[in-house]
Amino acid sequence: MAPFQAGNTPQLDIFIRGLKSHPLEASTETLVSLLKRRQISGSRPCAIAAVHILRQVVAKAPYRDVDGLIAKIQQTGQRLVHAQPHELAVGNIVRRVLGLIREEMQEDRTEFGGDSVSDLQTLCPEKEKETKEHVVGLPVLSRAPTLGGWSHQSAPFSIMNLLSPDQGSGAGSPMGRSGTSTPMLHGQNLSINNLKSEVLDGIDEITDELEQVDDQIAGYADIQIHPTDYILVHELDSTTERFLLRASRERRFTVFIAQGKSTTSKAGDATPSLFQKKLNSAGVKTINISNTGLAAYMTKVDKVILSVRGVTADGGAVAESGATAIAQAARAFGKPVVVLMGMYKLSPESTPDPRSLVEWGEPESFVNFSKGNMVNTVEVEVPLTEFVAPGLVDTYISNIGVHTQDHLPSLIVDHYNEQDSDFVLTIPA
Amino acid sequence: MDSVLAETAAPYSAAGGGAGTAPSTGQLPIRPAPEQNLAGTASTPAAFDIVTEYNNALIRDPEVTKPVAAIEALIELLRQQPTTTIQETVEMIKTGIDALKSSVANPIPLQAGTDLFQEYILRCIKPPEPSRKSSKRGGGTKSPPTSDYVHQDFDDVRLHLLNNTYLFALRAKEARVRIAEIGSRYVLDGRTVLTHGGSRTVSALLLKAAKDRLTQGGIMFNVMYVESARDNAEGGDTVKKLREMGVSVAIIQESAVAYVLPKADRVFVGAETVCKNGGIISRLGTFQLATLANLFNVPIWVAAETHKMAKVYPLSQYDLNVKQEIISFRTGDDLVEGKGELVNIGPEQVRMVDYTPPDLITNLITEVGIKLPSAVFEHQRQHLTAHGKVGNFGEMFEKSIRGDASKKHRSTSSVGTEDVSPDFGKVSANPDINDLPSPVRRLVQVPERLGHHGRNKRKGGRSTM
């Protein structure tokens, strides 16, 4: 486990520094292997690494049009996701970048299109006129009505798509009335450089966001934590730490630290004490409690704070193992469970099988090879993470606010493009 | 109406028999060449019955859903009764919808389709909007639209609708295929799923999941198929097909649901209507199944196309506005054999429905992905206008003409300039039409978001697709 991400891990720093000097392909390879070997781990370092490599793709990779760029991002994105499928943040970042490109693309296109500017342009009367010609000659349904008809991806179907004229019928259609194919290509070439710089700006914004995310979340600390509160924390990562430290400036409260994971026997003991020291020096009383005796303390606890590795679209949280037990105990005692998540942790996908998100660790701390007769006869499963069911979490605190489960869909709509939700499964052209 | 009732006796033979009662209303499943459509408008039969058309649409293609059938019927109405003014068209559509709604016991599924249709028409009859982008670019403004222009476009809209009737049904079916693709991923290897009733969407989903395992390998899943004694013919076909594909299917009595539920890993149900709040209106028994599933912590997944989302917001079971007699107290005096069991109106044997509130539903499977029940509202806000009441189409149109609608503002600052609508002041030959202050655009606009935006500097929401 990587409890503290104060600053970047050395591996990540080396990787970022090397980006400029190495060719793109080499950097990508490096990152893939770093992810595979868990040398970059934890959702934030992974997200930072992903942002950096995608920025390089946009800046360096050869592409002639938006389609090419999207395909490139998708390819790189898929490699990253496959390298570390448990880290939802990687896929989220790729989707953010894809969404960014699509947004810029649409803005560009509407600027060139001139007439058909409204957001509802697919329904715009002048489009009707245009499409009519296509319609007369038996419209082909198989042409996916995509965003602007530029992308190869399967399009999001919307309610209105049921009735709207066949979109993407012919290259000219996105251009509105004046749409012959020649001006479009011309416009597109012109705009690709604009688009590139716009996208790079957007990616830089994401990078900024990743840097500020802990601070922003900590901004909600004194609203959430009240004087004399008893807070139960579980996972000790930088977000939680920052959150509690910020609260300690104005509040006097007590922190229960749930421990007792024998899986992390090696380095695990040192980190909580370091964390404790920081809290203690900030004037916060800390009490270590064992995971097994947790429910006994639950009556005393006012709030449970979980820091998570990722949140699925339906609000399920991937947290370090032991979190479900805590969340269930909290539910049983009617205590609120608060999840701290940066927006980059919120995935637009929900998972078909929660078990697939669980990361399994080595069972050596329970059964090692010295106990020879156990080997091959006993199956020991050691989950490092687990999936906290959506219903068990009451509040989600992200860098942009405090949300409930019902609020997540609109957050997802704001941050991602529907088309990209399953980019991992689509094969880029 | 009488003729319709007569047909109900033998629904599946009615496709042929019905031809006599509704002469030349175009009963062919697929429209012939476009020219003929235009010719068809000339020889309008005196009595066009939209209800008959709706029922025929349901009969001639058993795969078609009620919302789509309603849309088809409305398009047929447009074809049969050519109108000259927009006002007239709006009135005609409104009456048509009212007739349709009053003809069935449960108008809600149909209403999803008519809402959609109204929405589409309304969006299309708005004048082309002076673009905010063009004003941003400075000086790129196009010449103001003339009244002819607007009207011309409406003709195009009409033509588009008339020529593509079959396309909508096709798209609706595509949506079902897509749901099957998405949803089948959620049927896990070797697990047991429980389903209920004869939902075509769920059947497609399960069949796809089975097919995937046949072609790509994987451990076959098991299905528990809940069937009530009343309509056990419904799922028979699906059960047979599933079994042929190697899926073990257990038929479960409705009364045994509580007994078997702990053995199920997931419940899949279909829906007739998805309500605004994410709850569903589905065949009787779904509510009870969902309640039990929640009791046993079995996730319940609803497979439904987005065109089934209707602007209804039931407050309780008894707020559905559906003609069904589920509770009928009787005494010994008035015991009449068989009464109060089923109401027969139209060719559909009205299935009784109940309302499942959103908190019992884990997720919805739509053709645009897996959605939380609470996402339905978001989806509707994006794609349908915000006019609250159902069926105030005419009122909304009036408003749009008078310009009341322009009072709604968009919060995003980038659009702020646009709020004082430039096209508002322009009056030309036909003020009625030209003064349309881009009605729907405004109504669609999102109210103040709850104090946050996705990216601070960028535009908050995503654009409507």
From TrEMBL, chain A:
SUPFAM superfamilies: NagB/RpiA/CoA transferase-like (SSF100950). It is found in: Cytoplasm, Cytosol. GO terms for cellular component: cytosol; eukaryotic translation initiation factor 2B complex. Residues 161-182 are annotated as: Disordered. It comes from the Eukaryota. Pfam families: IF-2B. GO terms for molecular function: guanyl-nucleotide exchange factor activity; translation initiation factor activity. InterPro entries: eIF2B_beta_subunit, IF-2B-related, IF_2B-like_C, NagB/RpiA_transferase-like. Keywords: Cytoplasm, Initiation factor, Protein biosynthesis. PANTHER family: TRANSLATION INITIATION FACTOR EIF-2B SUBUNIT BETA. Belongs to the eIF-2B alpha/beta/delta subunits family. Component of the translation initiation factor 2B (eIF2B) complex which is a heterodecamer of two sets of five different subunits: alpha, beta, gamma, delta and epsilon. Subunits alpha, beta and delta comprise a regulatory subcomplex and subunits epsilon and gamma comprise a catalytic subcomplex. Within the complex, the hexameric regulatory complex resides at the center, with the two heterodimeric catalytic subcomplexes bound on opposite sides. This is Translation initiation factor eIF2B subunit beta. It comes from Zalerion maritima.
Automatic annotation (TrEMBL), chain B:
Gene3D superfamilies: Translation initiation factor eif-2b, domain 2 (3.40.50.10470), Translation initiation factor eIF-2B, N-terminal domain (1.20.120.1070). Its main location: cytoplasm. One of its GO terms (molecular function) is guanyl-nucleotide exchange factor activity. Residues 12-41, 127-149, 402-465 are annotated as: Disordered. Residues 452-465 have a biased composition (Basic residues). SUPFAM superfamilies: NagB/RpiA/CoA transferase-like. GO terms for cellular component: cytosol; eukaryotic translation initiation factor 2B complex. Component of the translation initiation factor 2B (eIF2B) complex which is a heterodecamer of two sets of five different subunits: alpha, beta, gamma, delta and epsilon. Subunits alpha, beta and delta comprise a regulatory subcomplex and subunits epsilon and gamma comprise a catalytic subcomplex. Within the complex, the hexameric regulatory complex resides at the center, with the two heterodimeric catalytic subcomplexes bound on opposite sides. Belongs to the eIF-2B alpha/beta/delta subunits family. This is Translation initiation factor eIF2B subunit alpha.
